[in-house]
Design goal:
This protein is an alpha/beta fold. The protein has nine helices and 19 strands.
């Protein structure tokens, strides 16, 4: 088993290259009116501040509308999200139009804000003014780069105001972050060595318990301008806390997020907060199964051919509707056969996957939901042909969910696909999960 931990990938993979799958909502303008500049007097210091406002076409002031607030990047201003054609900005405007939302793009002390105290106060005031001006439902935040960091900061500082936050290519740790220090120190009122508590206060990673709303994060492993490590850690912590979180991690991605991934992050937080069905393929697949919720394994690309399994026991009757498995980046096979084995080692279901992506979590919907019986034990498995994931210590204790419990990851180097994998090692999981619904007799 030593080669189970060889070739550990230094970078993390949590995400898939999926095509955009948008369906039209039953309501929504599908278009925003032209941007309008709005000035206000900042209560914090009496200065005149500005933001851009875009209303849904055919806006009815008597109807309730949700609000999407977009926070620009370093060196930009309120005009970036209102008119820029880059993917992050277009996707934000399109999602606001799709869901009939009021779209707001503030200066928040442009051009080098980083959500310091005055920018924070301005945004609190804007939200209050919008509620006084319109019939506002829920407030959502989105931002990229500095805006992605600032969206996480504001959500951690004011969770009572925010229904969902989508961050692209931001940081969650200002004590750790090393770039743009002159601008950040000007915004925060001093350098981190002078006022470390202020930097900690504005570092979302230190306050995971405050993220009571859905959170979606997109990040790139090759991003050197705003390295992804802190937001990946934050997403993993939120997942461990059982929070609603989506992480799209592109190992080769740099300091940008494309239209598809930006749309996935926004659809995830908006639909989750509003209890709407997810239509975006990326948001659905990334959300993950009942046991690991899309959390990436710590070892993502170990080498070798091996049968991998997940051993579960049902505590009540129920159905497995889909199987998830984390596909290693080096695994070149485009199709795998998933199997479910009973306690006696008989294969009771096999299903060949389709439309796999290059790496990350794959979701395979079973043609017919697989019924499980109370107190029965099952193993879900597949054969990794050349590379596989692993996560030591995942089963230090059983993972208990409603109606079903996972208690072991299993493997086998013999009789690939012909026998149930039964061996265990270092309490590992091997990146297998399920969608499960307890039916209760």
């Amino acid at each position: 088993m030593q080669h189970f931990v060889k070739r550990v990938a230094i970078t993390f993979i949590w995400g898939m290259m999926l095509l955009l799958a948008l369906t039209q909502p039953s309501h929504g303008a599908q278009k925003l009116d032209a941007p309008k500049e709005v000035a206000f007097t900042a209560a914090v210091d009496g200065s005149t501040q500005l933001y851009m406002e875009m209303l849904p076409a055919g806006f009815d002031q008597e109807q309730e509308h949700h609000v999407l607030i977009a926070l620009h990047g370093h060196g930009a201003n309120r005009h970036q999200y209102a008119s820029d054609t880059r993917d992050e900005c277009r996707a934000a405007r399109d999602m606001a139009a799709k869901y009939d939302m009021i779209f707001i793009s503030p200066d928040y002390r442009a051009s080098t804000s980083w959500m310091g105290p005055t920018a924070e106060a301005d945004l609190v005031q804007i939200i209050s003014d919008l509620r006084n001006k319109y019939r506002v439902g829920k407030i959502f935040l989105v931002g990229a780069s500095m805006g992605g960091a600032s969206a996480l900061t504001f959500a951690a500082l004011h969770p009572e105001l925010i229904a969902g936050v989508a961050s692209q290519n931001g940081t969650a740790n200002h004590l750790e972050y090393a770039n743009f220090q002159d601008a950040i120190s000007a915004s925060y009122g001093g350098r981190k060595q002078q006022i470390p508590e202020e930097y900690k206060k504005r570092s979302a990673e230190y306050w995971p318990e405050r993220f009571t709303m859905p959170v979606a994060i997109a990040a790139g492993g090759a991003d050197t301008l705003v390295p992804a490590a802190s937001v990946v850690r934050l997403a993993n912590i939120l997942n461990q806390l059982g929070r609603k979180v989506l992480l799209i991690y592109r190992e080769q991605g740099g300091h940008s997020t494309d239209y598809v991934d930006t749309t996935a992050t926004l659809e995830y937080v908006i639909c989750t907060a509003l209890n709407l069905p997810l239509h975006h393929a990326g948001a659905i697949a990334q959300a993950g199964g009942v046991f690991f919720g899309g959390q990436r394994p710590s070892i993502t690309d170990a080498g070798g051919k091996v049968d991998l399994g997940l051993k579960v026991t049902a505590t009540t009757t129920g159905v497995i509707t889909a199987v998830y498995f984390f596909k290693a980046q080096g695994e070149v096979e485009n199709s795998h056969t998933l199997r479910i084995w009973d306690a006696q080692g008989q294969c009771v279901l096999s299903h060949v996957t389709q439309e796999e992506t290059g790496g990350g979590w794959q979701r395979a919907v079973l043609p017919t939901p697989f019924a499980v019986k109370a107190d029965d034990v099952y193993t879900i498995s597949y054969t990794a042909q050349s590379h596989y994931p692993a996560h030591p210590g995942a089963f230090a204790a059983p993972i208990v969910r409603e109606g079903i419990t996972a208690f072991a990851g299993t493997y086998s180097f013999e009789e690939f696909g012909k026998a149930m994998p039964v061996k265990t090692h270092q309490q590992m999981s091997y990146g297998i999960d399920i969608e499960y619904t307890a039916t209760h007799p």
